[in-house]
Structures are given as C-alpha cells and as structure tokens.
Specification:
With 347 residues, the protein is α/β, with parallel strands linked by helices. It has 11 helices and 14 strands. The strands form 4 sheets. Strands 3-2-1-4-5-6-11 form a 7-stranded parallel sheet, sandwiched between helices. A 3-stranded mixed sheet has the order 12-9-14. Helix 2 links the parallel strand 2 and strand 3. The structure holds nicotinamide-adenine-dinucleotide (NAD). The site of nicotinamide-adenine-dinucleotide has 25 residues, from helix 1, helix 5, strand 5 and strand 7.
Length: 347
C-alpha cells in the first residue's frame, strides 16, 4: 500500500459482517477510508456485497476481513500487530437479542463484556486510542417524553446491563488516562431499513426479535402473523412505542462522531434517533402500505423487561455532530422490503 498517497486513515469495524457493521463499513469506504472488519462469523458473501456497493473489485485491499472471535485476546492482538495503520475502532461486535439475554445471561455478559475488555486492552497495548461503541437505548428507563443523554440509566435485561457496564468500563478507562483516550458511546434507538441497493440488510435468524424483520417475514408469507407483546401499555394504541432510525442515517452518524472524538481526548455519549415515536401497530400499517400485503397480527403477553416508550432527544447529536436522522419510517419499511426481496436471498 502506498502510505504517502493515503488520505484518510484505516478504521477497524468489529462485528462488521452484521447488520449495522456492514452499513458502517460501506459508508466509511464511500467516504474514502480504508476498513478492516473482524467478526467471528464467516459470511464472506457479506464482504463481497459491501465491495460491490462501493465499487471495489473482489481483490481490493481497501476492505480486509479477519475472522476471529474477540474473546480470543491473542488473535485480536495479532490483527492489530499485523495492521499497524489502524487509527480508530468502531466496536459493534456483540450479541443483541434482548429476549435471549434473559435466558442466557452468562453468555451475554461473557461475550459482550470480555470482547470489549479485550479490545480496550489491545488498543492500549498497541497505541490505538479512538473508539466508538455501539450502546443501546435499552440502557434507559422508559419515559413518556424524549430521553436525553443525561437521563438516569436503568437497564432491565442482561443485554441492556451488558451495554451499561461496558459504557462504565469505557468511562473508567478514559478517566484513568484522560489525555490518551478518545471514546464515544453511541446509544442507538431502533435501527431499521437496509442499504438502498437492497444488497445488505438485517438477516433474520431464529433469535431475531426486532419488529420489522418479523413483520417482513409475515408479509413474505414465511410466518402466519406478527405477535404483538402486549396491547395494554399506556400509549395511544396500547402497544409499545419506539424511535426507529434508518440504518444509513445511523451509519453516516459514525463518520461525524469519529471526527468529533478525534478533535480532543474525550468520553462522550450520543443518542442516535429521530425523536419521533412509532407504535407497533403503526409500524405494521406502514409496512402494509409499502409492501401491499395484509399483515395479520395477534396479541400476546408482555415480554419481560420490555419498555412502554423509548424515544430519543436527538438535540445533542444534532448540535454537536450535525447528525440529522431524517429518513422516514415509510422509507425504512420500503428499503427493508427491497432487501427482503433481493438481498436476503443472496447471503
Ligand atoms: N440492531 C439493533 O437494533 C441494535 C440496537 C442498539 C444497539 N445495537 C448494538 O449494535 C451492535 C451491532 O448490532 P447488529 O444489529 O449489527 O447485530 P448483528 O448480530 O447483525 O451483528 C453483530 C456481529 O457481531 C459479531 N460478534 C458477536 N460476538 C462476537 C465476538 N465475540 N467476536 C467477534 N465477532 C462477534 C457477530 O458475528 C455479528 O456478525 C451490537 O453490539 C448491538 O448490541 C444494535
């Protein structure tokens, strides 16, 4: 590689084969950065799809992939030692099923905490000091109004607790060497949608509990109906309300967040959401509109740890990152539907 001609630095995206990671990798590549992905999953098709989207040839070295489990400190260290131009890390690797975490708390704590601690240790050992972390709105308690970054943290599930604990670890690590670390925690609300090409998107697995992938399965005739977990919440139609944010808006937010933390050593937290709430029933209606399919639903019991309403106050990320998450819920549904019909069949 010709280091003299290189304009922008290399970012490491952990969990980069996943839903958010593949979009983050694509936007960084489009913006001229080079990207290394590490992931324990081996879905190399995903890497080729990212290359296709940004117009890179199969052999291009601007995007490299290392299949490792971040629980393995030595393997992680080896990636950093053999790629000495890593400038920043976007840490997205993690287990994310809120429901499953209630049944397998140790799995969630071990995977999410140990991989994050290993990452911090390796970054410290190799002199890499810029880090963006994928936290979640689930660290907050429910609220009838928009939630700002200063709100009390009240994680209710092992998944959410693992995120709050990692944030605390990162904050303590930053405090211990305040002139060294540049750390930003991004509290994502509900990322939805897919890349407009329809080539990358959110894969639906047996563990999936995100609403839109399940609605899309019903629309596609893969499932009979959507189960709504509770219709007796104190909301406008009795179902829970979330702040859905288009995945590409969220992915672009990482570019501005990285530039922001690069300015000076810091520990900062940003909400990534639109500030607009949508109920489960409203989301089903939006999806019916874009897909043209009838989506039957039934009412089930409330889920343990579920929250009535989570909507971001996006004013800090707007003011400090100039982040405008503007794509509508209809666009999110339309892009997801396109991915479901094109991309999901080719993973
Ligand atoms: N999607 C959401 O709704 C949402 C909301 C808030 C926060 N987040 C967080 O954002 C991150 C990315 O989410 P996503 O939706 O892309 O999830 P995803 O499951 O699609 O991707 C996560 C990736 O991390 C990898 N991974 C997990 N543990 C690993 C380990 N020990 N070593 C190496 N790779 C590992 C997985 O193989 C997977 O490819 C997660 O940490 C998640 O908790 C997601």
């Amino acid at each position: 590689m010709d280091r003299i001609k290189k304009i922008l630095s290399t970012n490491l995206v952990t969990g980069g084969i996943g839903f958010i990671g593949s979009h983050v990798a694509a936007v960084f590549l489009e913006a001229g950065y080079e990207v290394l992905i590490i992931d324990k999953s081996s879905k190399k098709r995903g890497i080729q799809h990212i290359k296709d989207i940004v117009g890179l040839s199969e052999k291009s070295k601007k995007l490299l992939f290392f299949q490792i489990d971040m629980l393995n400190y030595d393997a992680l260290l080896e990636v950093f030692l053999s790629n000495t131009d890593i400038d920043a890390v976007i840490h997205l690797a993690g287990l994310k099923s809120v429901a499953k975490s209630n049944f397998c708390p140790l799995l969630y704590y071990q995977n999410n905490l140990v991989s994050s601690i290993n990452l911090l240790r390796v970054m410290e050992d190799t002199g890499v000091n810029k880090l963006l972390f994928s936290s979640s709105a689930f660290v907050y308690e429910e609220s009838d109004t928009q939630i700002s970054e200063n709100a009390k943290l009240m994680p209710k599930t092992p998944y959410a607790s693992s995120k709050a604990m990692i944030e605390k670890i990162m904050s303590d690590v930053q405090k211990s060497a305040p002139e060294y670390w540049h750390i930003g925690c991004m509290r994502y609300f509900n990322p939805v949608g897919a890349h407009q090409s329809g080539k990358i998107g959110e894969e639906v697995t047996n563990e999936s509990c995100n609403l839109v992938p399940i609605i899309a399965q019903v629309a596609a005739g893969e499932k009979q109906c959507v189960t709504i977990f509770g219709d007796d919440y104190e909301t406008r139609d009795g179902t829970t309300i979330r702040d859905y944010v288009h995945i590409t808006d969220l992915a672009y937010g990482h570019i501005s967040a990285l530039k922001k933390i690069a300015e000076k050593p810091t520990y900062c937290v940003y909400n990534i959401g639109t500030g607009i709430g949508t109920s489960v029933i409203e989301m089903i209606k939006f999806f019916e509109k874009v897909s043209g399919c009838k989506i039957p639903y039934k009412i089930g019991k409330r889920r343990e740890g579920d929250l009535k309403m989570l909507v971001a106050d996006p004013s800090k990320s707007l003011a400090e990152l100039n982040l405008k998450c503007e794509k509508s819920v209809l666009e999110m549904c339309a892009d997801f539907w396109k991915w479901k019909q094109i991309g999901e069949k080719d993973i």
